[in-house]
Amino acid sequence: MPEIIKAHHPHRHRLPNNPKPKEWLAADHSMQYVADYKPFNFVDGEGVRCSIYVSGCLFNCPGCYNKAAQNFHYGQPYTQDLEDQIIEDLSHDYVQGLTLLGGEPFLNTQVCLKLCKRVRKEFGHKKDIWSWSGYTWEELLKDSDDKKELLSLIDILVDGRFLQDKKDLTLQFRGSSNQRVIDVPKSLKAGKVVIWDKLMH
């Protein structure tokens, strides 16, 4: 009987891919493409955000909300013109910050590091940087130097694979209950995960 149930529901228990530390490197996979850029939105973090969706992800989470962007060659190449536009859009007083999504930002560190360094150079910490990632906090700390450098530039990390079995539409800023909204500077200082103190649910 269990075999019959399994045959009828082949995707029910399929899980995202599970990389070993440094198994996936941006240098090997990223085409430095951008799937989308959405300025002045209210959904990708706190306040008004400018959101860049980088192309390419290897986690392949069942139920991914942005499956097209798993392809590293989807969209358009990242350009200096786009970067300048993002910086101009961020310069408005009412914009709180930049959000990195995808795809997988930590497999597109060439793009994300360049942009985040520019944001810090232009605005210091007046603008915050959020990022979603399929990697967990613990995985990123064991991974390549470029991933750790990107983490150090981020204020808020929403971490972990999307898991269909833990899907919960009532959660703030995340799709499944395993994911965490992490205060990165506080966590790096404490040497352990510190959850963002403004999280409502």
Fold blueprint:
Layout: H1 2-8, H2 26-29, E1 33-41, E2 48-54, E3 76-77, H3 80-90, E4 95-101, H4 109-123, E5 128-132, H5 137-141, H6 145-152, E6 156-159, E7 180-183, H7 184-190
Parallel strand pairs: 2-4, 4-5, 5-6
Antiparallel strand pairs: 1-2, 1-3, 6-7
In short:
The chain is α/β, with parallel strands linked by helices. The chain has helices at residues 2-8, 26-29, 80-90, 109-123, 137-141, 145-152, 184-190; strands at residues 33-41, 48-54, 76-77, 95-101, 128-132, 156-159, 180-183. A seven-stranded mixed sheet has the order 3-1-2-4-5-6-7.
Uncertain residue ranges? 1-11
- Can you tell me the CATH topology? TIM Barrel
What portion of residues belong to β-strands?
15-25%
Q: Cα distance, first to last residue?
A: 39 Å
Can you tell me the CATH superfamily? Aldolase class I
How many E-type strands? 7
Provide the number of structural domains.
1
What is the C-level CATH assignment? Answer: Alpha Beta
Fraction of residues in H or I helices: 25-40%
Number of helical stretches of at least 4 residues:
7
How do the strands of the widest beta sheet line up side by side?
3-1-2-4-5-6-7
What is the CATH architecture term? Answer: Alpha-Beta Barrel
Mean pLDDT: 94
Shape: globular
Let me know the largest β-sheet. 7 strands, mixed
Helix/strand/pairing category: alpha/beta
Computed over alpha carbons, the radius of gyration is 17 Å
What pattern of helices and strands is seen along the backbone? HHEEEHEHEHHEEH
Work out the oligomeric state of the chains in this entry: single chain
